[in-house]
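Predict structure. Input: Chemotaxis protein methyltransferase, 268 residues.
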Amino acid sequence: MNNLALSDKEFRLYRDMIFEVAGISMSDAKKSLVSGRLAKRIRQHNLSNYGDYFRLLMHDPAEQQIAVDLLTTNETYFFREPKHFVFLRERILPELEDRSPLRVWSGACSTGEEPYSIAMTLAEALGNRPWELLASDLSTRVLEKARGGLYRMNDAEDIPRPLLVKYCFRGVGENAGALLIAPALRNRMSFQQINLNAPLPQLGAFEVIFLRNVMIYFDLETKRQVMRRLLPMLRPGGYFIVSHSESLNGVCDELKVVAPSIYRKPHA
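Output follows.
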C-alpha cells in the first residue's frame, strides 16, 4: 500500500476522464500530480492500485466529484492581477452606472479570493446602488471554502488596507490568526457549482464576466465551445476579462480587445 504506482495506461484513463468531465487537457507532465493527489483516496478506500480506484469512479458519482475536485488546480489569491480591479473601478463601473442591478459573474471562483475581491470593489465604488455577484466553480470542495469566507490572516497581504478594515474581520478564539469576510458582503453574493464544459443553467445576463486562469487548461476547440456557451450571457456593451497569460485570439471573434486581457461585446 505504500508503493502505489500510476502506470501510463492508468494515467491515460484519468486524463481522458478529466477532459470529458471538465474539458481540461493534461499533458504527460501531470502524471505525478494525478498520482500524488489521488493516493490518499486510494488508501482510504483500501484499494491496491489506481486501476481499482478508477473503476470505483465509474460507478460512484460522488467519489468521481471528489477526484475531479482533487485534480483541478485552484491557485488563487486576493486582488490577483490588480490592474483588472483598477479597470473595473475606474472604467467599467462609471460606464455602466445606469445598469441596475449591475450583474457580475466570477466563472472560476476557486476558493473565493477573486469574487470577494470583486465584491469589495463593487461595494466600495457603488455604495448603496444594487449589484449582484455570482461565483461559480466546478469543484464543490473549493466552493464550500469560498462560501465560508474564512482565510488565513497571511492571505490578506494583497487586500488594500482600507478595504481590509471595512470588509474583513480578524478572527478571535478558535479562529485566531484567521480572516473572515464580513457577513454583510458575503450575503450579497451567491455561489453555485457550474461546469463550463457542459450546457449552462439559466443564469440571466451579466455586464461583466471574469474567466481568468481557466482556459489555459483547455485545448482550442474546448475554448471555442466554452465561449459559445458564455457569449449569450454577456450583455451588449458588457466586458469579458481573462488572465494576462490568456488570449481569445482565434477563439472568439465577437469580442473586441479594449485593453490587455480585457474584451468587450459590441452594442447590438
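The domain at 83-264 is CATH 3.40.50.150 (Rossmann fold).
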